[in-house]
Amino acid sequence: MKSFAYVNAAGEKEAVAALGPERGRFLPLAGGMDLLALMKDYIAQPDRLVNVKGLDRAIARTPDGGLRIGAAVTLTQLAESAEARRMYPAMTDAAAEVGTPQIRNVGTVGGNINQRPRCWYFRNEEFPCLKKGGSTCYAVDGENQYHAIFGDGPCHIVHPSSLAVPSVALNAKFRVVGPTGERVVDAGEYFQMPDRNLFGETVLAPNELLTHVMLPPPGAARTATYEVRFKQSHDWPLAFASVALSMSGDTVRGARVVMGAVAPIPWRSPAAEAALTGKRLTEEAAMTAADAAVQGAKPMTLNSYKVQIARTAVKRAIMKAAGLKTV
Amino acid sequence: MARRRKKLEAGSWKLEAGTQQQPPPAAQAAPPPAPQGPPRNWPPVADRTLIGKSIKRLDGPDKAQGKAKYTYDIIRPGMLYGRLLGSPHAHARIKGIDLSAAEKLAGVKAVLALKDPAGEGANGKAFYQGDEIAAVAATTEEIAEDAVRLIKVEYEPLQALATAAQAMSADAPAVFPKGNVSQQSLQQEGDVEAALKSAAHIVEGTYSTQVQTHTSLETHGGICEWEGEKLTAWVSTQAVHGARDGIAGSLKIPQTNVRVITDYMGGGFGSKLGFDYQVVVCARLAKLANAPVKLMLNRKEEHLVTGNRPSAYAKVRAGVDAKGKLVAFDAETWGTGGAGAGAAFRVPYPIYVFPSRRQRHRDAYTNAGPQRAFRAPGHPQASFITEVVLDELADKLRLDPLELRMRNVLSATDPSQEDPSRQWRKYFPMGAEKIGWSKRHPTGDPASGPIKRGMGCAGNTWGGAGSRATRANCQILPDGSVLARIGTQDIGTGTRTLVAIVAAETMGLPLTGVKAEIGDTNYPFAPGSGGSVTVASVSATMRIACENARDELFAKVAPALGVEPSALAAKDGRIQVKDAPSKGMTWREACKLLGVQPISADGAFGPGLSSTGTSGVQFADVEVDIETGVTRVKRIVCVQDCGTIMDKLTAESQVYGGIIMGLGFALYENRILDRNTARMVNPNMEWYLLPGMSDIPEIDITLVDQPDRGPVGLGEPPVISTAAAVANAVANAIGVRVRKLPLSPDAILQALNEERTGGTL
Ligand SMILES: Cc1cc2nc3c(=O)[nH]c(=O)nc-3n(C[C@H](O)[C@H](O)[C@H](O)COP(=O)(O)OP(=O)(O)OC[C@H]3O[C@@H](n4cnc5c(N)ncnc54)[C@H](O)[C@@H]3O)c2cc1C
Ligand code: SF4
Q: What are phi and psi of B590, to 5 degrees?
């Protein structure tokens, strides 16, 4: 990897001060599970790393009855938090299945949400693709079996973060700090499609930091995440879904249905949400919603199988939230 | 230019020839060597104190504690770090190499160009991604890496062939000097066309298996240190002697000037059998820099340039008669072993009798790293193709596939005789019993719900005879210590422990009473650890060396006890009279009689102590989620022999490892080249999927001991049948055949989908 300078930031202010406005030159380092791999592969070549493990690492109740998760909280910490598990199983289930125990012990919430795409063309130096400033997306007529089935390009990554998807389903707010102070962004607005932002995946400016994920009070919502993985460990989901269903009795009053690993951002499905609303929670309702969720999917040359997997993930996430048997 | 030619002469791959790897089925194993010397035997079964017991490997604790130093761990005083520059293009002309910036970087001690822009053929071209262009040695790994990136290479990228189909297509660019596709080879017996006409049922289909890389945990490479004209090389190799000869040949120095050491070795699976080009580069860097150099590949290079199991494709027509007797197997086959390398495999798999058979095979050359021997070369591919066809034929017959195998598997040529190397008729029922075959449903699990359960089975064979060239040395020292030396290597299989077992058993001593020394060309010649020859070669030869040494000791002791040497036995730490065990002396007392003169006895491989030919079967029990295409293997049952079991624990280890590797081949592993550039998109362990702990099912192993045969190799057979058994189990579960590996969710959903839409089935 390229040599770099290292700054140990004590807190938010110092960290932001040590970052700069130029993309890629100064980068925050959290657990390093993603960033160090990018640097070893010469995909990221920062001049300076700013250690942000000094950001908040607490999971705390908010006055309104929600939960506030610090960016430096590890995935293990989140997965094992009894409070988080009771309130937001969609979130803790997602955290618990990331990568491997080692990755979860070191990887952080902030790093997970801001990790870079896993597209193998992006990750291999020999392919100067669009996202790296080149002129082609190699995935389009190449090896796109793990790529997006939604979106119009020009880049066809799937967003890699497992936490991003339940964050959107749970209507989380992200607290962001920058040189001019702080702002709060809806999780649903945080991630950006490649036609708007080709070189990054979020609204974050290079000198901004994500400091907290704030989850609204769960109320009577039932939430779940269901992932379809090939290997049990040390692998990525082929597709997954997080759902949050607000219930009155056993009827769905409102639903948020979000799919992961299918698009450049967590992919919310208004059609599936509409299909569920006002319905009793049954396997049929789940199936109808799942069919609606993948309506309009535009698979690439090699990944139409992912449509079926995404559909299954949505169906089973709904059934899991409803307390029904998933298989 | 001259430098590059060395590489080609050394035969790491031959562009023109299209090197073939021929699978050695049991039937073709080398004939047993002619008898010589006194008759040799292992002790009677009842007297064996170590052989056949469960013995923990001697270096296990050292490995677990990190005390065992692998090549990768070795650090020599003043050592530099070497790094290679590989071509980023799968096919390119090298138009210029400018080393100057690298040479100027502080800390860089040597830089070498490995291609010649003015050179012809492979000299001036890169034929696959990672093809070595230049090398550096520097004081740290980081500087070496930086230096490599400072080398400026001017490439003229050329059109590359990524797949066998591309290479074989009519409008393919001419990439390889002698054509992109080899001449068709023909193997045949009987008249397939006539036999197929007579068949009651015929199965037709195209079957394929992917390219699998060896993915050794310890990457290839070594450390080279010169002392004047003498070179010591610590190499991660499966063949210390082979590596010595290869290095000496490439450097054009006498073999006497090269010593190769391999104390511990982190996996090779065939890819470290041939000597490695990078070690030669390492030696040249060390000479140039006048300092020891370590050059070990990184993970990406390991995937790209250190070999692979070639892909296999077979368009098959096979027939069976109404009574369930196989009649014919006709296959047009092809595959790619990469740049100029063959992709041989032989179908039908030789344990089943197809009276008429034909195989027409062509190798397609592609711009990818050349293949190398890979654990049972050719066998897993051929096994998958044949065993899946068998299950399809059984379905046509509406016959239990186990029964079809029982009717057609090879058995002793003379029915009144039992052939210990053809035990499938015994093992299939044993495995069936263990897996619960009686509960197996016909093709297609009738259970409702998305999770479908199924079972499948497959059989295998291997040679595994010892090599006649093997030599060993045994020393008995006056203080009673015993040294067993042989220039074999322990590639993770337990060879060091095996040597100690043989020596201790022969001397009647505990394991702690002997010292095994291996992994060094200063010790007597033993063959490379490939073809599963090691156990048979090493045990038989070491037994002879130890018997020779022991007999010399008997000769010293006999006069003191007033008996003939032949009346003596070494047992329980004593030398004693066979018929009057109380008459004797302790081993130490006996050795004191040597005075100052130790015994040193050699042994040459001899007959009678080992054998050849194994049989094995595997059964798989799987669950497939038909809504996601995800397969989980629940259980593998294996019944396997390997002649006389020398150490039950390490033998079982081989089987576990083989099955896990077979599982990787069945479900996960796949070298994926970008179809447009022929560059590998998954040269890592993230997207090159390997089974992890949680993906490994319950594995139930029955090792059948054949205590009178002597040992036969076991390294390769356990990897052969797993993928075939799993594939058959998947089809039994979902009711649809998946005719290609790996059995990814993608492949399974696609097969289910084609079935639903009335596709290829
Ligand atoms: C084999 C494997 C399997 C994996 N499987 C999964 C999986 O299933 N699901 C999943 O979600 N992930 C998976 N991962 C990825 C892993 O979870 C992430 O790499 C990890 O969570 C990143 O966290 P980190 O703290 O180590 O981030 P880092 O590597 O330190 O940082 C990641 C990125 O985020 C930026 N960053 C860090 N903190 C902040 C902040 N507070 N504000 C703004 N930017 C910041 C960094 O600059 C960097 O670009 C897998 C990884 C591997 C290797
Ligand atoms: S999908 Fe995006 S990251 Fe991948 S090759 Fe295309 S442009 Fe590059």
A: -60, -45
Dist. CA B90–CA A185, nearest whole Å: 45
Contact A127/B691, CB-based, under 8 Å?
no
Give residue-wise pLDDT tens across range B520-557: 999 999 999 999 999 999 999 999 999 999 999 999 99
Instruction: Give the DSSP H/E element, type plus range, for residue B174.
Output: none
Q: What string of DSSP letters covers B556-573?
A: HHHHHHTS-GGGEEEETT
Helices B2-9 and B240-251: angle between axes, nearest 10 degrees: 150
Q: For residues A317 and A94, is the Cβ–Cβ distance under 8 A?
A: no
To the nearest 10°, the Cα dihedral for B232, B238, B242, B243? -30
Instruction: Give the number of C-alpha atoms closer than 13 A to the C-alpha of residue B297, restricted to the C-beta side.
Output: 29
Model pTM?
0.96
Contact B350/B383 with Cβ under 8 angstroms? no
Q: Where are the domains of chain B?
A: 2-30+70-158+215-305, 45-68+466-604, 308-464+611-757
From ligand 2's centre to the CA of A117, what distance in Å?
A: 9
Structure token pair of residue A173: 């707010």
Question: Quick check: B443 and B755 in contact, CB under 8 A?
Answer: no
Helical residues (DSSP H) of chain A, grouped into ranges: 12-18, 35-40, 75-80, 82-87, 89-97, 101-106, 109-113, 120-123, 164-169, 187-190, 270-276, 283-294, 305-321
How far A38 CA lies from chain B's nearest CA (Å)?
13
Task: Provide CB contacts within 8 A for B449, sequence distance 6+.
Answer: A327
CB of A153 sitting under 6 A from ligand 1: no
Whole-angstrom Cα distance, residue A165 to residue A262? 11
By the CB < 8 Å criterion, does A64 face chain B? no
Interacting residues of B417 by C-beta distance below 8 A, sequence separation 6+: none
Q: How far is residue A44's CA from residue A37's CA, in Å, rounded to a whole number?
A: 9
CA distances from B229 to B255, B290, B448, B700 (A): 11, 11, 74, 53
Q: A305, A314, A325: which to substitute to probe chain B, counting the most B Cβ within 10 Å?
A: A305
Q: What is the pLDDT of residues B387-424, one digit of tens each?
A: 999 999 999 999 999 999 999 999 977 778 889 999 99
**Three-class SS state of B135:** strand
Separation CA B402–CA B425 (nearest Å)? 10
Domain regions of chain A by residue span: 222-322
The answer to whether A210 touches A68, Cβ cutoff 8 Å, is no
Residue B624 corresponds to which tokens in the numbers above?
Answer: 């497939």
Distance in angstroms (rounded) separating the CA atoms of residues B29 and B174: 38
ipTM above 0.85, yes or no: yes
* CATH of the domain spanning B2-30+70-158+215-305, picked from 3.40.47.10, 3.30.70.260, 3.30.365.10, 1.10.1200.120: 3.30.365.10
Q: Write out B305-334 in H/E/C secondary structure.
A: HCCEECCEEEEEEEEECCCCCEEEEEEEEE
Kindly report, residue by residue over A175-211, the tens digit of the pLDDT.
Answer: 999 999 999 999 999 999 999 999 999 999 999 999 9
**Ligand 1 closest atom vs CA A36:** 29
d(CA B175, CA B691): 36
What's the sign of the alpha-carbon dihedral A51, A54, A57, A61? negative
Q: Which CATH architecture has domain A222-322?
A: 2-Layer Sandwich (3.30)
The domain B45-68+466-604 is placed in CATH, from the list 3.30.70.100, 3.40.190.10, 3.40.50.2300, 3.30.365.10, at 3.30.365.10
Q: Select from B743, A250, A315 the least CA-distant residue to A327.
A: A315
| C-alpha–C-alpha distance, residues A239 and A230, integer Å | 10
Nearest in space to B312 (alpha carbons), one of B336, B332, B339, B341:
B336
Cβ of B691 under 8 Å from any chain A Cβ? yes
Question: Domain B308-464+611-757 - what CATH class?
Answer: alpha beta
